[in-house]
Amino acid sequence: MLSPRAFARIPLRLQLLWLVAGTVALSLAVSMLTAVVLDWGLHEDQAARTLETAARSAATAASAAVAFDDDIAAAEALRILATQKEITAAAVYRLDGERLAVHGDASLPPARAGPAAEHGPDFSPLHTTTHLLRPIVFDDSTLGWIYLHADLAEFRARYLEQTALSVLASLCGLGLAVWLGMRLIERITRPVRGLADLAHRVRDDGNYSLRADAAEAGGSANEVAELVAGINAMLAEIEQRNWELGENRRELEQRVAERTSALDQVNVSLLAQKRGAEEANQAKSRFLAAASHDLRQPMHALSLLVSALDDNLREHGEAGDRWTETRRLADLIEASVRNMGNLLNDLLDLSRLDAGVIVPHPVCARVDEILDRLSARFLPLALKKGLRMRFVTGHMEVETDPVLLDRILANLIDNAIRYTDSGGILVGTRRRAGGGARIEVVDSGIGIPGAMLERIFEEYFQLGNPERDRDKGQGLGLSIVKRLADLLGCRISVRSRPGRGTHFSLELPPCATAAPAPARSEHAVEPAALPGRDGLVLLVEDDEVIVQAMRALFAQWGVPLITASGIEEALRALDAAGRAPALVLSDYRLPGGCDGIGVVARLRARYGGDMPAILVTGDTGEEAMRAVAASGLTLLHKPLHPAKLRALLSHVLK
Predict the structure, then answer these.
(1) What is the DSSP letter of 98?
(2) CATH 3.40.50.2300 boundaries in the chain
(3) Average pLDDT of 627-651?
(4) First to last CA, the chain
(5) Higher pLDDT among residues 450 and 472, named by residue
(6) pLDDT per residue over 581-635, tens digit each?
(7) Are 556 and 315 in contact (CB under 8 A)?
(8) Per-residue pLDDT tens for 98-151?
């Protein structure tokens, strides 16, 4: 039997032939099956009536013999059944079931019979014989029993003969229907084949002037004729549209050529503008790299000089209006320098983020080491403001860029100090359930209204600063935090209650590999047997203005200071002093091919690996920041506020 998919692939003519032949054959089969069943029922009824009639006739004839128990008369009565050829055996039984007389094959009737064995004839197609047992009744009294056994061969022969005639008639009808169907199918499929041939020619040649022959459709009123007329009309319309499209295409080609020429000129102009924009962007990048260092240097020197001036006024000033006005002006200059430095840092960082020059380089970093460096930087500032600050760390390793993470946390902690007037600040870490760590910065400051939580990461957005107090920043810190967090792919969230404080949370992923152990200098030796450290500070700085400002500032503080522009000069100065420094302050970028990290390494190799050292730099380049982070040294950015430096010195030298 063909599947639906295979049936769909055969020609339409054969499909219709299958459909006509199948439908007619199914109809004839159903009709023939119905006739066979009905004929069987009619023959069965007729045979049953014949046997019942014979049984009643024999019972009537044998009733007297049964009544008088005359077996000879009973046998004579059964002889009337001899004319019924289909009856092969018969028997008469007394009322008690004993057989009285037999006709025909004596082995067929049962030896006894009674009411329990009474039954009619069974004409099941599976049986070749049938029998019945009926009572012999006289005046409503049962005298005995009559038994008949019949052969169904003749009955079946007559039935099969009639069935064969019915099948033959059905087959003749099927043949006639198929012949007529083929004639009709040919009239339908001939114009359809013509349409198919026409479609192939139109497709292959692209000639839409061809038309189908309407005469093959056999008339103008049937559906096939309507199909032929519709296809001819469609071809005529396509031919007309193709002509119109050709005209439009020629006109369009002319317009496209004109526009293409104009676009070529525009593209040339755009390419020139693109090259100009790329060159401007490169110039911007170069400016940012240079500005990050060159602008911080004079700002750092100015900050130190203003602080020295302030200390000088405090120590040597005299009471009076002139001294008071000079002191006020010095304070204003100091505040302006501090705000200018903060604004410079934020604007440079924001510009570098916008320019896309900051690319994260994630490594497996230890959170406690990053927080230890932040603690050294911000704890003095919190103490100066009268705030409690606590760092809760643990040995946790995360996959992140430690330089960018340091910047994020520094901005969050700086914000917490600025907007907290009393109470304290907590910086802590927690392990995440799926690995990694969560770093939290919690303060008891002014808090943030719920409606404003989504806006705090916008540029220049500030709360509680309508007068634009420069001491509270420019509103860029959290914007930088959000951009750096997105750059690192870590999630930052915030919860806050006005008047109760703010809670920032930063989620960091776990390390793919274990974090390396902190590297130690291979040249580290035991401390030299020199005089004990008594507060001497070594400054390695090549900017003469900054050196002079630091000398003035340290002189005001009463802290001994040795300055040098490089490592060799520093070693000679220390040898001449005959003392080991209690603290090394070194610029990162130095002349002569040696940076601040190398300076500290040389000094620790000579005076001991545990000698305190701090790097101070105006460089914000990624390469430099990553090198400092890898060294494990504390890093301070220029311009450095003298109060922060003084608090740090007090903390270290103590």
Answers:
(1) B
(2) 295-357+520-654
(3) 80
(4) 102
(5) 450
(6) 999 999 988 887 788 999 999 999 999 888 899 998 877 666 777 888 888 888 8
(7) yes
(8) 888 898 888 888 888 877 566 667 766 667 788 888 888 888 888 888 888 888
The percent of the chain in helix, strand and coil, each rounded to the nearest 5, is: 55, 15, 25
Classify residue 436 as left (phi > 0), alpha (psi -120 to 50) or beta: left
The CATH number of domain 363-508, selected from 3.30.565.10, 3.40.50.720, 3.20.20.70, 3.10.20.740: 3.30.565.10
Confidence of residue 528 (pLDDT cuts 50, 70, 90): very low
Given a cut of 50, whether residue 525 has pLDDT beyond it is no
Burial of residue 312 (CB within 10 Å: 0-12, 13-18, 19+) is middle
Q: Give the pLDDT score at 214.
A: 65
Q: For residue 612, what are its two tokens?
A: 């305190």
Question: What is the Cα–Cα distance from 305 to 21, expressed in whole angstroms?
Answer: 113
Instruction: Give this prediction's pTM.
Output: 0.40
Burial level of 285, CB count in 10 A (0-12/13-18/19+)?
middle
Q: How far is CA 68 from CA 55, 72, 90, 503, in A?
A: 20, 11, 19, 126
Mutual orientation of helices 367-384 and 402-418 as an angle, nearest 10°? 20
Chain centroid, CA 27 distance in Å: 57
Residue 110: what residue type? P
**329 falls in which pLDDT band (50, 70, 90)?**
low
Q: Based on the number of CB atoms within 10 Å of its own CB, is 141 exposed (0-12), middle (13-18) or buried (19 or more)?
A: exposed
| C-beta of residue 375 within 8 angstroms of C-beta of residue 651 | no
Q: The tokens 């041939």 sit on which residue? A: 197
Q: Which CATH number fits domain 295-357+520-654: 1.10.150.170, 3.40.50.2300, 3.90.650.10, 3.40.50.300?
A: 3.40.50.2300
| pLDDT score for 508 | 92
Reported for 65-74, long-range contacts at CB under 8 A and 24+ positions apart, including other chains, are 65/92, 65/100, 65/101, 66/92, 66/94, 66/95, 66/100, 66/136, 66/143, 66/144, 67/138, 67/143, 69/94, 69/100, 71/100, 71/101, 72/101, 74/100, 74/101
Among 620, 646, 604, which residue's Cα sits nearest to residue 297?
Answer: 620
The pLDDT, as a whole number, for residue 524 is 33
**How does pLDDT run across 376-415, given as a tens digit for each residue?**
889 998 998 999 999 998 888 999 999 889 989 998 999 8
Where do the H-state alpha helices sit in 387-496?
402-418, 477-488
| Prior bond of 639 cis (ω within 30°) | yes
What's the CA gap between 219 and 320, in Å, rounded?
A: 126
Helices and strands: H and E segment counts in the chain: 15, 16
| Amino acid symbol at 19 | L
Q: Percent of the chain, pLDDT > 70? A: 76
Q: What angle do CA 453, 423, 389 make, to 5 degrees?
A: 90
Q: At what angle do helices 321-354 and 296-316 cross, to 10 degrees?
A: 160
Q: Pairing relation of β-strands 141-151 and 129-138?
A: antiparallel
Higher pLDDT, 20 or 260: 260
Comma-separated ranges of CATH 3.30.450.20 domains in the chain: 12-164
pLDDT of residue 227: 75
Q: What is the mean pLDDT of residues 38-57?
A: 79
Could you please report the per-residue DSSP string of 557-602? Answer: HT--EEEESSHHHHHHHHHHHT---SEEEEESS-STT--HHHHHHH
Judge: domain 12-164, CATH 3.30.450.20: yes
